Structure formats: structure tokens, C-alpha cells
Amino acid sequence: MSVLFETSLGDIVIDLETDACPKTCENFLKLCKVYYYNLNAFFNVSKDFLAQVGDPTATGTGGESIWSLIASQGGPSTPRYFTPEFVPRLKHRQRGTVSMAVAPAVGDEHKGGCGSQFFITIGDNIEYLDGKHAVFGHVVEGFETLDKLNDVFVDQDGRPLKDVRIRHVEILEDPFEDPPGLVIPDSPPVKPPDNSTRIAEDEDPLETMPEDEAEEIRRKKAAQASALTLEMVGDLPFANVRPPENVLFVCKLNPVTRDEDLELIFSRFGKIMSCQVIRDKKTGDSLQYAFIEFDKREDAEQAYFKMQNVLVDDRRIWVDFSQSVARFNSQWSNNPKMGPPLARGGRGRARGGFGGRDDLEETRRYRDQSSRAGSDYGMVFDVPDGERRHRKTRSPSPRRRERSTERPRRSRSPRPRRRDDDPERDRRRRGSRDRQPKDSRNRYEHRR
């Protein structure tokens, strides 16, 4: 009576002592039949000692007998463990001995016994386990697998750092009838029963991939990180946004080419939703590329194939599908003639501000105005208008403030000329004074 275990390190064939240990072998075979051991991990491996498996939780505290499993599915109440079968002639003397792990009794309610956990010895002459754990089989094939299992790297608890699992169990011969209430699943499980965070049993941490594939993965991760950053600052509506498939990117344009010229040329392929030549924000000069948005993707594809390298205004244009997602914000360019961004309902910088924050835009505008006005503010911060106006002036004295409240300030506008003022008469008066004799002027001054 044999069982084949297909593990991630190789195959192991176990011969069972069905005559000496019938109850233990029946429990073991029926658990194998219901795929109980499939995808179980070896959770305790001690070098030159043993390798333990059979706990679905991979903690060393789980597992139950086949009769307890049937009871949990709706059968009659049955204890979790059954009484172990100790046979004096079956000892832990040779490497590859298969033995059921016996759980100790805890108090009066929890009685010890055998459940589903078993171990395989990977060392010779471990006789001090005799009488403590019940031997019920021996490994007859797969000793090279035991050598690999003995050399695995484990942590401080004896758990392999890389999972070693039982992938499949094949019963070669079963002499026992199925117990009442046994339900056999239609297919083996496809997911491990435990929540392992170790290296997967089918994963090679030292495996290297070709340089081109590794470079492609690095570029993809870098693109994802950049997209996430642009989403955080508001330049992208969301990180996983895809460029529209109905928008063409046209470059190498002549600077004299206008929006209406391109729209007229490309309109023969279908309805155009928008056509815009991107221009410099300050000078308004063409940057010699444009975006053309069609109503249908098929029209954009047709224009892409037909307009490549076509002569437009003495220039060979280049046409490609757009990779920009700026259209999702509000518009393709930042042309101030297109209207206020807030009215267009855009996001990010199209709405004003930096990253969608209007306060940062306000401080930037204030900084620019201060630099144009010759202000010596070195930091960007908000200053109240009154404080900004009187920061460099001395506060008026109390007497001056009182005087200013009593009477209004005199106007500095020039005195209006009276109607009877005669410029010629004034000129004659000034001339007559200049022609007075010198002595008469001296007498007058002396008299004063």
C-alpha cells in the first residue's frame, strides 16, 4: 500500500504499514483522498532530524482526523484526535521513517492523540522518538528529495524561507472502504490553505531575466511612478489615464499655418471636434505643432495613414497619434485668449494655481508684482494692503493726525485764472519796475 507525494522539491513514495497500523493508515489514506494534504507546506524542518507537514494552517496547532473532518461537515460528533497506534518493532531508526505526530493532552477536556500532522525523518538513529510518536510507513523512493529538504534555509522557528509544498497526492492502492459521510471534492484545491508571506514555492529569487525585459519593467515602473506624481500635483486627472485614440499630433508645421488651415485640410476625413495650433503664451508665435481631435477614432486612423509626410505650406508634416492627456484638463495650450481657466472647469494648472491650489498662484502673482514694483521682499508671503503701503513710511504724529481730521486737505491743483487777468498788462507792469532808477529803488529799500 503506497502513496505518491509530488512536492516542490521532487517526488516521494511512501509504503504504509496497513497491517500493523490499520487505523492510522486508514486516517492517512482518506485524508489524502479528500485532497486534505494538497498544497500543504512543510512548516517545521530541522536539519538531520525531521520535516513536519500536514497542518493546513502551517502553524503546528491545526489539523484533525478524517472522522473529525466528517463530523465538521454534518456527521455525528467525534473527537478531534484518535488514539495513536504504537508498534514496538516500528522504530525511528532509519532515515525516511514516516510517523504521525502525537499531540499532548492538555487538561481533562483536550485529550491528546493523532490528527493529520505527520513527519518524515531526515536523519538516522532518532530512537528517542520511539514511544512518543506513532510510526506507520517508510520512504521507498525519493531520498534525493529528502536531501534537498534537509538543505533548505529556515528561519529561527524552523520554517523554510522559501515554501516547500505538497503539490499533489496520488494514492497508489487503498485497501480500506470509505467511512460513512465521506465527501470527496470534485477537484483539488488551487489556493494554499495558509496565508503565507514566504517566497512562493514556484518562485526563484535568484532568477535573472533578459536585459531587455528587465529594462522594460524598469521603464514601466518609472512611468507609473511619474504618473502617480503628476496625479498628486494635479497635472493628470488620475494616474492610469490613457491618451485618447481620436486625437492626432501634427508637427513640423510652417509657422504661418493657422488653425483654420489645418481644420480645412483634415476635415475631409471626418468631423473635427477641435483643431488647435499650439502657440507661445507670451509672444503668440506658433510652436509648429498642433492637436486635431476627430469625432470618431476611425476618421483619426484614416487621417493618420493618408496625411503622413504630406506637403502643407511648403513643409512636410509629421502625423502621429497623440500621447498627451492635457485635453482631459481643459485645453491643449495655455493661451490666455482662450478664456479664464476656472470658467472652463479644468483641473490642475489649467484651473489656475499650482497643482490646483489657488493660494500658491496668489503668492506667485504677488511675488511678480513686487519684483516689478521694486519691492525688497525676498520671501513669498501675503502682506495686508495697509501694511504693505506704510511699511517704509513713518507713522504720522498725533498732532498731524488731529489736524487732518479737523479740516480737509488743500488741493494742489493750479489756481484758476480770472477772467479779468491780462497777460499784456502784467508784462508792462514788470517792465516798468525794471526801468525804475537805481536810487529810487535804494530809497524804497532803505525806507523798508
UniProtKB/TrEMBL annotation:
One GO molecular-function entry: peptidyl-prolyl cis-trans isomerase activity
Compositionally biased intervals (Basic residues): 389-402
EC number: 5.2.1.8
Keywords annotated in UniProt: Isomerase, Nucleus, RNA-binding, Rotamase
Limits of the RRM domain: 246-324
Subcellular location: Nucleus
Main localisation: nucleus
Domain PPIase cyclophilin-type: 6-171
Region (Disordered): 177-212, 330-448
A cellular component annotation (GO) from this entry: nucleus
Keyword Repeat part of the UniProt annotation: no
UniProt superkingdom: Eukaryota
One Pfam assignment: RRM_1
UniProt xrefs under InterPro entries: CRIP, Cyclophilin-like_dom_sf, Cyclophilin-type_PPIase_dom, Cyclophilin_PPIL4, Nucleotide-bd_a/b_plait_sf, RBD_domain_sf, RRM_dom
Basic and acidic residues biased stretches: 356-370, 433-448
Residue spans of biased composition, Acidic residues class: 201-212
Catalytic reactions on record: [protein]-peptidylproline (omega=180) = [protein]-peptidylproline (omega=0)
Family, similarity comment: Belongs to the cyclophilin-type PPIase family. PPIL4 subfamily.
Function: PPIases accelerate the folding of proteins. It catalyzes the cis-trans isomerization of proline imidic peptide bonds in oligopeptides.
Protein name according to UniProt: Peptidyl-prolyl cis-trans isomerase
Source organism (scientific name): Dichomitus squalens
Lineage: Eukaryota, Fungi, Dikarya, Basidiomycota, Agaricomycotina
